[in-house]
Hints:
binds magnesium ion
Amino acid sequence: MSKTRQALAAEVQATLFEELDEAAWERLEEALIMADVGAATTAEVVSQLEAAAGSGELQGGEALTRRLVELMADIARNPSRPATISLLPEPTVIMVAGVNGTGKTTTIGKLAWHLRETLGKTVLVGAADTFRAAAVEQLEEWARRSGAEFVRGPQDSDPGSVAFEAVRRGRELGVDVVIIDTAGRLHTQDDLMAELAKVRRVVDKQLPGAPHETLLTVDATTGQNGLRQAKLFSETVPVDGIVLTKLDGTAKGGIALAIAGELGIPVKLIGIGEALEDLRPFDADDFARALLAPE
Length: 295
Ligand SMILES: Nc1nc2c(ncn2[C@@H]2O[C@H](COP(=O)(O)OP(=O)(O)O)[C@@H](O)[C@H]2O)c(=O)[nH]1
Ligand SMILES: [Mg+2]
């Protein structure tokens, strides 16, 4: 977050601690848009802040900055849906979807590790991204590193059948969580969406009600493009939560607000690096504070 913070905090200081004329609000708007907060969400935040400043309800840069943090946290918190992942179903089946390269496989490795390491859960991962052979091997390596069971299909197998087998095997072994990797790109968008829908159907056949959680990985460095991807996916498969990856490499962390504000999908996890331990739960208050905290 430090990159986003540096970019935003300086601008907010420059704006809210000086005379609040038209130009100052425009500068603030620009800074939020540069941080990828998104046009609609930015407009909403700035107009509310402007109203608070205009009514004299809030005096001084510090009070305004505090209110700005509150407004951003409210948007990121997305009150209508919980940002948690329930682990009550036995096993809990989590499906991970997203465009290639956004960090599905890496996130699965980290998530499996966290579930085991911090919660003492047993995990099985299923390699239903059968579109590329390398993807299967990559997931197998993450399974090994995180201590998870691993299910793959024969070469060129159908993703649905691998997902089915992963859930079946998970139930047989009595694991707590089954995580299913999926393909991020097929010949056409329609193929991809049809395949994801089929994986869901097949999993539900093996274990009614599963998958219990569908997570969508979004690469924070792709900014507004990530927002468009999330929109597209969530129109086809019911997405329960976003994993915002690569937040360590961007000054555009505001994308979390754009996603929560404009799509109404909670950001549940954030990726902050390539190592096993580089996954964190998303906390709206911490996030908003961190965006604007002075150095
Ligand atoms: N810096 C950083 N790199 C990440 C993060 N998550 C994934 N990556 C990298 O992004 C690349 C693509 O990840 P991968 O899991 O293969 O994406 P997939 O195609 O969606 O499965 C890899 O080089 C990962 O190491 C993250 O949170 N931070
Ligand atoms: Mg992958």
